[in-house]
Amino acid sequence: MLTPRQNLMETIKGGNPDRFVNQYEYLDIIMEASIMIGDMPMFPGNMGKDAWGVTWNWPEGQLGGFPMHDDEHKVLKDITEWKKYLKKPIIPTADEVWAPAIAHAKAVDRNEKFVTTFFAPGLFEMMHHLMGMEDALMNFYEEPEAMHELIDYIVDYELEFAKIVIDKIHPDALFHHDDWGSQISTFLAPKMFEEFFLPGYKKLYGFYKANGVELIVHHSDSFAATLVPYMIEMDMDIWQGVMNTNNIPELIAEYGGKISFMGGLHSGEIDFPEWTPEICAEYVEKACKTNGKKYYIPCLTSGLPMSSFPGVYEEVTRQIDKMSKELF
Amino acid sequence: MSKIEEVKALVEAGKSKKIAAAVQEALDAGDKAQDILDAMVASMSVVGDKFSAGEIFVPEMLIAAKSMSKGVEVLKPVMAGDTSNSLGTCIMGTVAGDLHDIGKNLVVMMLESAGFDMIDLGVDVPAEKFVEAIKENKNVVLVACSGLLTTTMPALKEAVQTVKAAFPDMKVIVGGAPVTPEYAAEIGADGYAPDAGSAAVKAKELVA
């Protein structure tokens, strides 16, 4: 039996996997290395600022936190003055800060799993966290030079972090978040995405790859089929969060071998208060049978190995195992 | 190109920094304020259709709406007191328990551009607040409810049914990622739109 890591490589290289890669099983995410979250709330009922000064509110009863953009909380009210208001957070390098991450990474059997560093939010998300979605989207047209400068500044910060995390834990994989669309469309026209974000991502993912990181997994639980050529160009190996609105079988037929697709199990349809094992089974069977064994990893679209409602993630895992027994 | 055509083109291209001057020039050249407004509404309708067809994206729609809004600012003093061009008031909000506002904001802009007077109740709006807003505002012809989460779909249903219980003839339109035309019909809504562009088309249809 192949290890989760070996099985993943067989799946994404079009070799001979001996079962479905089961959700996030091949990644051992070193969350202790996510030291730059500041006081961002991790649980409902909390409010706090992240490392860039963005205030987050996670009200009770909600599935996640929201950046606040009223006049009192918006970090960048005028993009042309970003240099006045924004300072890169200082990334600590002290051994004691990194000790838990280093210990976790050392405990991982790298033949079994990829030691994985996690990074969020990505470049596009940073833009709308800092200034609000409407301002961000309009500024790509109205103040393109300032937007380019700001993106370059954030790329530099991400590279600083990359250098340190590579030095500290020698990751085999990067799991990077940046949502690029809604369920039915990308936020930006592909050409605009290419102009503003492709260069930065090429730099970032290129740097990780040049420094021992074998696998780049990127989360965007959205439509983004029209961006796949850019994903390939930036050296992404796996697009996690891919929704069925992208027509996954078509993407696999067109791009399999250059990139793989992880998702197809919509959290909104499966992970909700009235969930049942039967619902999980139905969607998992459909996803596995429709998308096939190569270049596809059945997974909830959620951006971490977890579900919003207890038991869903585990049930989906069980159902994927069942499909492996049936189809392999 | 006539001045009015220039205004139309500037709205469609989202040239918000040039629109005010162009509208003023059109007025100075003798074009009627109503005709200029109609031209801008027509432009936004084209923008909405292109968005629905996937030819343009949210940034293009936002800058077009911003341009129209700046153009309208120039027309306002000229048209003061003239309400004949209004399609009526629309109350809009994201339903209780849901804090998503991007889609809702886009719909507000598109409906405003189509000629509705918009009252934006914001996010996490309890069902009763929609009813209060109908009572508090003049000439309300439409209620628009948005919901992004599967978990807040029951709140969408409650909002529609609460409005319908208090104002049986009030038209209600719903939308949001998990909403389908079937679900909209099931909960008693009069209309459904999958995106902001078609929301403007559907809203006009409902109040016609």
From TrEMBL, chain A:
<dbReference type="Pfam" id="PF01208">
    <property type="entry name" value="URO-D"/>
</dbReference>
<feature type="domain" description="Uroporphyrinogen decarboxylase (URO-D)">
    <location>
        <begin position="111"/>
        <end position="309"/>
    </location>
</feature>
<dbReference type="InterPro" id="IPR038071">
    <property type="entry name" value="UROD/MetE-like_sf"/>
</dbReference>
<protein>
    <submittedName>
        <fullName>Uroporphyrinogen decarboxylase</fullName>
    </submittedName>
</protein>
<dbReference type="InterPro" id="IPR052024">
    <property type="entry name" value="Methanogen_methyltrans"/>
</dbReference>
<dbReference type="InterPro" id="IPR000257">
    <property type="entry name" value="Uroporphyrinogen_deCOase"/>
</dbReference>
TrEMBL record, chain B:
<protein>
    <submittedName>
        <fullName>Cobalamin-binding protein</fullName>
    </submittedName>
</protein>
<dbReference type="InterPro" id="IPR050554">
    <property type="entry name" value="Met_Synthase/Corrinoid"/>
</dbReference>
<dbReference type="InterPro" id="IPR003759">
    <property type="entry name" value="Cbl-bd_cap"/>
</dbReference>
<dbReference type="Pfam" id="PF02310">
    <property type="entry name" value="B12-binding"/>
</dbReference>
<dbReference type="InterPro" id="IPR036724">
    <property type="entry name" value="Cobalamin-bd_sf"/>
</dbReference>
<feature type="domain" description="B12-binding N-terminal">
    <location>
        <begin position="1"/>
        <end position="87"/>
    </location>
</feature>
<feature type="domain" description="B12-binding">
    <location>
        <begin position="87"/>
        <end position="208"/>
    </location>
</feature>
<dbReference type="InterPro" id="IPR006158">
    <property type="entry name" value="Cobalamin-bd"/>
</dbReference>
<keyword id="KW-0479">Metal-binding</keyword>
<dbReference type="InterPro" id="IPR036594">
    <property type="entry name" value="Meth_synthase_dom"/>
</dbReference>
<dbReference type="Pfam" id="PF02607">
    <property type="entry name" value="B12-binding_2"/>
</dbReference>
<keyword id="KW-0170">Cobalt</keyword>
